[in-house]
Amino acid sequence: MKKLTYDEIPDAVVNLGEKIEWIELLLKENFYIHKLNDRSQNHLVKEKCSSSFNKSDLAQFFYILMDENVLFFDDKREKYNRSKMQQFIEENFTYSGDAGLQTKIDTISKQFSESKGFTYGEKQLRFLDKIIWMFQRRREKVAAR
């Protein structure tokens, strides 16, 4: 291994941290798979849908679709619908975590609350601008065909 200069140390530490996170993720996945495949349990490993969004953006995305009644479990009972939507996201999706690694969602309740609250209005506007830009880019691609 080559000796690092003083200026190279910060980059090397970041690189090492990313490698450690990657190893931890692999170990967690292996533990999860082995735990589910244990002879005392007869469960299948459930594949989850990955997302390029961070946890907050993923919550905002689903919250908007839920709030606008695009996606719902029960359009009459708001609290029940919200609870089922959160459970659905937690059980079926991962988000882009630190170093871009897909991360399991233990709970998304806090992020859903932030999506509803007016305190995070600027954050929501930035997210909406991002989504609108994505849809506009998509529209241009379709129109160009």
Plain-language structure description:
With 145 residues, the protein is mostly helical. It has 2 domains: 1-45, no CATH class; 48-143, no CATH class. The protein contains 5 helices and 2 strands. The protein has helices at 9-37, 55-67, 78-92, 109-116, 121-143, and strands spanning 94-96, 102-104. Strands 1-2 form a two-stranded antiparallel sheet. α2 (55-67) runs antiparallel to α3 (78-92) and α2 (55-67) packs across α4. The radius of gyration is 20 Å and the shape is globular. The termini are far apart. The model is unreliable at 39-43 (pLDDT under 50).
Throw out a few tags for this protein.
145 residues; mainly alpha; two-stranded antiparallel sheet; 5 helices; globular
Based on CA atoms alone, the radius of gyration comes out at 20 Å
Number of domains: 2
Structural class: mainly alpha
General shape: globular
As a percent range, the share of helical residues equals: 55-70%
SSE order, as H and E?
HHHEEHH
Low-confidence stretches: 39-43
Gap from first CA to last CA? 52 Å
Q: Report the average pLDDT across residues.
A: 84
Secondary structure tally: strands: 2
| Beta-strand share of residues | under 5%
Specify the biggest β-sheet: 2 strands, antiparallel
SS element count, helices = 5
Strand order within the widest sheet?
Answer: 1-2
